[in-house]
């Protein structure tokens, strides 16, 4: 409830002052502490304790502590990584600080633990079975069960280290790997997995792929093993050289773009916004949100490494920077973008509804036409049925006539047969005429019977 009120007040204030976008300029960033590149004071990573103290891993093996008031001191010193550097930092729940040390010396290479009093010892030796330094431990983060996850920049994989210090490859998915070997003065290997961050509920681990500008999301299975790896977002133009990553309280992911002097934000939906670019950013390598009064402010390390070794032109400016209250500003813009998306979706739905209404009207017209056709067909069926009934009556009459005619034919045939019988000659005289006349009369009567036997027929003379 309080968070929603804060967001609402922030939206109102931004509307009043007319803020249209987060300025990608120096005005959005201030310098907390500058360091001396000549003394190799190059901060690669940072971590913040519960009191708001900031810890920085220097390339020399020194861990610097910057208090909330800006006081700087040496918190711990690890063996100088002559052939490497110091990388990621992460606190465990007990307040111990863990450090990545890719020294490439098998006696020091691995993960180190620094207790609250500044005592340092190697926690996990990352070495191959034949005793050689293994990989390039870089980003560090703990899960909610106290297991430590470490990215391998060279090997394109993620180690999981339990609370006893035992390490195993947790994920070696191809999405974590680089592809193109680097050129001198760097080792001839590709750069892959880099910064790590868990989402709010700890069910997905996000990993930045340095070379491809890709953010990989890896699900955690219930037993703690690595689930399926997928691409959350990939954009080499905007995110190429992605280094440290972190989430704000709203679920937006912040990315330090080492190669492009840039800080970008990936929204919950995967949209990318550049929130800072150019000076004073100088090979930014890590991003972390503060605590307490600084909870919404983003702290950034200027590693300045490429300029310090002369690979990139320009003056190296190693420093600790801060973007005040950036999380709230980004969330306001994110909410605005989501509102615009919802408006666009609503407009699209309205247009679709209008189209559907038109389609419904067309269908209704078609149905009415079909109903008329069906009624006409019904009338035709009735007519045909009546005609069929009448035709059936006439057919019965015809069949009756045919039967009568057959009977007539049979009577005629009988008469003809009777006439064809031999006639015994009669003696001449008056009686003979009388008998002939009688035969003629019989034939006439038979013919008359044939004519009278046909219904509807009139006898003919």
Can you describe this structure?
The protein is of the alpha+beta class. The chain has 2 domains: 304 residues, Neuraminidase, CATH 2.120.10.30; 107 residues. 31% of the residues lie in helices and 29% in strands. It contains 5 helices and 24 strands. The strands form 6 sheets. It has a 4-stranded antiparallel beta sheet, with no helix packed on it. Strands 2-3-4-5 form a 4-stranded antiparallel beta sheet, with no helix packed on it. A hairpin with a 5-residue loop joins β6 and β7. α1 crosses α4 and α4 runs antiparallel to α5. It is elongated and about 155 Å long. 33% of the residues are buried. The N terminus and C terminus are likely disordered.
Instruction: List low-pLDDT spans.
Output: 1-27, 456-461
Termini gap: 120 Å
Strand order of the largest sheet: 1-24-23-22
The SSE string, one letter per element, is HEEEEEEEEEEEEEEEEEHEEEEEEHEHH
Average pLDDT for all residues: 84
From the alpha carbons, calculate the radius of gyration and give it in angstroms: 51 Å
Largest β-sheet summary: 4 strands, antiparallel
- 3D shape: elongated
What would CATH call the class of the largest domain? Answer: Mainly Beta
* Topology-level CATH name of the largest domain: Neuraminidase
Count helical runs.
5
Which secondary-structure class do the elements indicate?
Answer: alpha+beta
Proportion of residues in β-strands: 25-35%
Instruction: Determine the CATH superfamily of the largest domain.
Output: TolB, C-terminal domain
The CATH architecture of the largest domain can be named as: 6 Propeller
Number of strands: 24
What level of helicity do the residues show?
A: 25-40%
């Amino acid at each position: 409830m309080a968070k929603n009120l804060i967001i609402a007040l922030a939206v109102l204030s931004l509307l009043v002052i007319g803020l249209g976008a987060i300025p990608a300029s120096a005005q959005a960033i201030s310098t907390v502490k500058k360091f001396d590149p000549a003394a190799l004071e190059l901060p690669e990573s940072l971590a913040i304790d519960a009191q708001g103290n900031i810890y920085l891993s220097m390339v020399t093996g020194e861990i610097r502590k910057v208090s909330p008031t800006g006081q700087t001191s040496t918190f711990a010193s690890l063996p100088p990584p002559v052939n490497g550097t110091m990388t990621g930092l992460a606190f465990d729940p007990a307040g111990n600080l863990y450090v990545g040390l890719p020294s490439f010396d098998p006696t020091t290479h691995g993960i180190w633990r620094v207790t609250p009093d500044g005592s340092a010892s190697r926690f996990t030796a990352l070495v191959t079975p034949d005793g050689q330094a293994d990989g390039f431990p870089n980003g560090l983060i703990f899960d909610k069960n106290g297991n430590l996850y470490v990215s391998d920049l060279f090997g394109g994989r993620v180690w999981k280290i339990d609370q006893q210090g035992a390490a195993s490859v947790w994920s070696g998915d191809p999405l974590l790997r680089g592809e193109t070997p680097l050129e001198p003065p760097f080792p001839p290997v590709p750069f892959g997995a880099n910064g790590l961050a868990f989402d709010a509920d700890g069910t997905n681990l996000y990993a930045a792929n340095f070379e491809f500008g890709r953010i990989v999301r890896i699900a955690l299975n219930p037993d703690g093993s690595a689930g399926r790896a997928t691409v959350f977002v990939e954009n080499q133009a905007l995110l190429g050289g992605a280094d440290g990553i972190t989430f704000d309280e709203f679920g937006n992911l912040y990315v330090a773009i080492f190669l492009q002097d840039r800080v970008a934000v990936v929204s919950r939906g995967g949209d990318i916004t550049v929130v800072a670019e150019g000076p004073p950013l100088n090979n930014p390598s890590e991003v972390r949100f503060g605590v307490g009064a600084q909870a919404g402010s983003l702290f950034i390390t200027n590693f300045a490494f490429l300029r310090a070794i002369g690979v990139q032109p320009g003056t190296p400016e190693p420093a600790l920077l801060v973007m005040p209250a950036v999380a709230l500003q980004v969330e306001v813009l994110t909410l605005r973008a989501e509102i615009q998306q919802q408006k666009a979706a609503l407009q699209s739905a309205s247009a679709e509804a209008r189209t559907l209404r038109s389609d419904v009207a067309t269908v209704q017209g078609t149905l009415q036409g079909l109903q008329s056709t069906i009624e006409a067909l019904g009338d035709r069926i009735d007519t045909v049925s009546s005609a069929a009934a009448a035709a059936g009556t006439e057919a019965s009459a015809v069949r009756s006539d045919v039967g009568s005619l057959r009977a007539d034919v049979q009577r005629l045939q009988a008469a003809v047969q009777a006439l064809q019988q031999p006639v015994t000659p009669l003696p001449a005289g008056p009686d003979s005429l009388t008998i002939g006349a009688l035969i003629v009369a019989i034939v006439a009567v038979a013919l008359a019977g044939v004519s009278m036997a046909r219904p509807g027929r009139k006898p003919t003379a």
